[in-house]
Amino acid sequence: MPLLDREVLEKYEEAGRIASKVREEMARVVKEGLLIIEVCEAAETAIRRLGGKPAFPCNVSVNEIAAHYTSPPRDEKRIPRNSVVKIDIGVHIDGYIADTAATVCFNREYRDMTQASKAALEAAIRTIRPGISTSELGSKIQRVIENMGFKPISNLTGHQIGRYAVHTGKSLPNVSHVSFRKIREGEVYAIEPFVTTPDSEGRVIEGSEAHIFRFLKRRGLKAGVSKNLLKYIEKNYRTLPFAKRWLTNCKFMSESSFRELLESRCIMAYPVFIEASGGWVAQFEHTVYIDKSGAVVLTE
Ligand code: MN
Ligand code: MN
Fold this sequence. Notes:
It is built from six helices and 15 strands. By secondary structure, the protein is an alpha+beta fold.
């Protein structure tokens, strides 16, 4: 595996700078009672203003929703009082992606849990380096979380990042597991420990709603009318996730065309992930580049 050349690394670094700036801006903006769609749109506008493109819709996942909530068109949901809010931001420059998240905690009962996720991420960043296995890293993350009295989500993982691919290659489970796969120099990873309360199940299930989608393939369409919508999606978002909101101004968009794309599996949906027992969840995430001595954090 060749190391990244300078030009590519610079694009990752620029995506990382924008993503971290927007994450911090949104962490300040988000307030109890605010419309979630305002947060999503403000984040995505800020990404573009700073010269990047969203690598996926801004996720604003509240309480027991661990991940993958973004506002549908005309969303009227608001940030609840006393909630725990995960803001997850993705930025790409020319397909090179930075993926980063923070938790804003409006409930003092969940302050320690939120801290546990942050501490686990920091420990993982200090631990990850060429030659260690994903299981060593997972054990470390699990130990930090459990030592603080909380539980990792066992079926949500960090992940390797590739060009125009948010999740590719190796996964980074947040628990110990059997694996001999090793971290290598030159790779880019998103590290994201998800933490819940000790009495919760510690795993997520898919919810019934889905507001994030992704292009899969061109073939298999029956009616021609949805072809143009599919072309628009592929041209604008390629293989990256997108929101239905983003299609509002596309002249080819209609509910029936969109449904046809889903039914013919030309696009796929990402359902929200909900903690199986309804436990609340915190998450912090950074994207790192692995150099010969360890992690270079791109989203600090
Ligand atoms: Mn993320
Ligand atoms: Mn991620």
